[in-house]
Structures
1.
Amino acid sequence: MKTYTDQYDLSQQQPELFWDAQAAHLAWFKTPQRVLTKDEHGIDRWFADGELNTCYLALDHHVGQGHGDRVAIYYDSPVTQQKCAITYHELLDDTARFAGVLSDLGVEKGDTVVLYMPMIPEAVVAMLAVARLGAIHSVVFGGFAPHELAVRIDDAKPKVVVSASCGIEVDKIIPYKPLLDEALEQSHHVPNHCVVVQRPQCAATLQPQRDIDWHQAVKQAKPVPCTAVNGTDPLYILYTSGTTGKPKGVQRDHGGHAVALNYAMRAVYDMAPGEVFWAASDIGWVVGHSFIVYGPLIAGCSTVLYEGKPIRTPDASAFWRVCAEYRVKVLFAAPTAFRAIKKEDPHATGMAHYDLSALAYVFVAGERLDPATYEWLKDRTQKPVIDHWWQTETGWPVCANLMGLEAKPTKPGSSTLPVPGYAVTILDEAGQPVANGQQGAIALKLPLPPGCLATLWQDHERFVRGYLNTYPGYYLTGDGGYVDNDGYVFIMGRIDDVINVAGHRLSTGEMEEIVAANPNVAECAVIGIPDDLKGQKPLGLVVLKDGVDASEASLTAEIVAQIRHDIGAVACFHDAMVVQRLPKTRSGKILRALLRQMAAGEAYKIPSTIDDPGCLNELEQAMRERGITPTAPCS
Ligand code: COA
Ligand code: AMP
């Protein structure tokens, strides 16, 4: 079955047959007999009675097949001047031994382990070791502040936390251990132990009894084998931003995840065992989970673990160097990374020094690929540039140009066609499918294919409320867009209060909760406004309480510091504007979508429910004074 249409149609007409055939590529301990079933909540679940272990698929299986000497990880760290190649054999040894450490600390199948780690090999080892035990990991992005970590620790309730003494950001060392200690002071849940990788750049103080030195512990540990789990047992929880301050714990199954990623590696990315894949992301995000760690390793590829940035480590040619040095076949990064490179090296002169002959494709995702960046990247690299769309919840691409199946002509602004398994539908407000070319909410018809979330950790009700209830029979993606007459999908952006800053998904709702807690603030809205480099950046609009005469500058400084303290530097919240009033409906709801459109320079309509249209003129004026060019309403 070679063509896209053949595979897509089969995936829609006979999903069980289609996915059963994909599952047959994996080394199950017990082959699933029942491909698609309903769980006790009536949710579709894949491969429930199959038995497997994801770490086994990623490591033991390849070593068992005689590929132990193949490189599993190329670790490249310009920030520490370190590089090494780790073979599958070595990675298996390290992982089995670290699983022994965790096991000695009481971690068993079904337990949770939180990881708060920089981009070092031990982070990958820890993820795989947790999976090896049938336990559940939850990786927290290292750029998040203690409060965010504490919230996740309280939700995931880990038996053990694994961390490192520090992370390294371009030219500064960020001691992680004090951040972890602060998080543990804030959290109600108390893990039994913390295992800490001591890095030479900054030693951490370990708390006797509770904290354990990684390297000392592994010396004494015995390797342990893989624990069999069911296809529907959870492999990991990954928290992602929703519309409130409470992040959503996306829960991913072992079975469907392995099947989907193995399929994606071949069909979407055209990867074969032994080839080199580089997702220039972070293990704290879904891209890191799926395509730094699990996808490439399950597929028997080599993955690049890069501890650096696209620029400043040391310059804008870093990506090209890494691609050349490891003969990377697929480079996958967020558009913001290429905007950063383009800004520093517009003519891509740095590329000329490197042999990019092994590089077959450049994939981008994580945020909208703007046409200027697309054209620049295509012209400079002379490689196919593939925009593909997906999200933490789906875990793997929803729309793509499937390079391993059948390359279709690209259309700038489109992430091409739905990947087999996904039924992408554009719905109007009443939940009715719209005509081609018409914009609406992007929904995915149920059942979702393997690999997508089946619930939210310990909060099934929120899963159903947030994703399934709006349009019965569909999963709501939170993105808006349209499908053209050729079936190409165009993503136009979020229709909720989630924003995307430098490829990092953040909740404006969460920022609003922090701004609103400032004693001088009567009410506020935080919106995402366009940013040339980062795609979007947050802007706070603040109404002061009566009688408060704080200056805008001092108030902004307070809010900026608070958001940095509570969420982290990664929020990139640098600006707040004091306004007289915020536009609201007559029932008192702030018209955030209108504010967003106005600040983004998009055409907007004044809703008939607006309470006081006059306040829009004031806002326009205030935005103009800030250098933001707002739009006027369209008639
Ligand atoms: N640990 C600690 N701090 C971190 C961090 C981490 N893992 N990641 C980012 N930060 C900090 C940065 O040091 C910076 O702090 P500062 O305000 O004190 O300077 C802040 O968070 C903002 O970081 P960032 O948004 O990354 O901005 P930048 O100016 O350092 O770099 C880019 C800009 C575009 C080069 C960078 O954002 C980038 O490479 N983005 C790609 C993101 C990506 O891969 N996303 C994954 C989705 S596919
Ligand atoms: P995350 O869950 O962090 O991966 O973020 C997912 C969100 O990023 C999606 O819901 C989209 O809003 C956005 N996104 C991801 N990929 C793309 C893309 N190719 N084009 C436009 N937006 C994207």
Note: The chain has 18 helices and 32 strands.
2.
Amino acid sequence: MSKIALITGATSGIGEACAHIFAQQGYNLILLARREDRLAKNAHQLEDKYAITVKQIIADVRDKNSLSAVLEILPDDWKNVDVLINNAGLSQGLDPIDKGNTSDWDTMIDTNVKGLLYVTKIVSNWMIPHQKGHIINIGSIAGKEVYPNGNVYCATKHAVDALSKAMRIDLLPYGIKVTEINPGMVETEFSIVRFKGDEERAKKVYESFEPLIADDIADAIWYVVSRPKHVNINDMLIMPTAQATATIVNKNS
Ligand code: NDP
Ligand code: 8X3
């Protein structure tokens, strides 16, 4: 039986890139996201290209009841998940605290923190009887530093940092590895989502330097997952060469 990876946020960016690299390595995939058309397109492409099987889960990680319903009806052999990539996440807005939009705050906290927790609770309970598994949490440089107007997004990624450490402790008795991957600036749909569809503004974020691409992060995740059984990489901070900190970027380099 092939190994299985469950990837949240698999319709674009880092999640989509992870789906390709794991499929290339022969993993069967459970891909979860909200956009049905894009998920179906990705799933069919992956099945055709890599001769693997893909289960599509249309779900919003914020909705704990329907999330549980769609995951728990998977057949038992699909619950033997080897790798969970908690990738679904987003930023909404870039404003100081006093001007922040409170529904944007709810969206970020509900997705990046509570959604990650809901998925982890379900899947870690599937892993425990097998006494193995690997959970990859996508944190961020925003979980290591705080930058102007990043307030709530940074707080959610600091929470992912704390939860990754907590999961590593709690799941230790079961042989489950926990790794946190923390990217700097990666050109995906992230900034388009942050700026609510303003593609011009999003494009400017990555102008005049070479940002990371989603494949760079997927490649690092594959490296982490492919270490021997007795080796766990706890934490990785991966930056573009042109980025020193969350805010210091060597533009025109
Ligand atoms: P993208 O916007 O390209 O991808 C985000 C993915 O998350 C999409 O597939 C989206 O799918 C999914 N998603 C968002 N909200 C939900 C939800 N409520 N339920 C289910 N799926 C959801 O951005 P990235 O690939 O860049 O982001 C992936 C992760 O990487 C995020 O956690 C982000 O915070 C983190 N990150 C990104 C960095 C960057 O510079 N790009 C840097 C550091 C970390 P759909 O809309 O179909 O549901
Ligand atoms: C995304 C990183 O610094 O572009 O997590 O907001 S940043």
Note: The chain has one domain: 4-238.
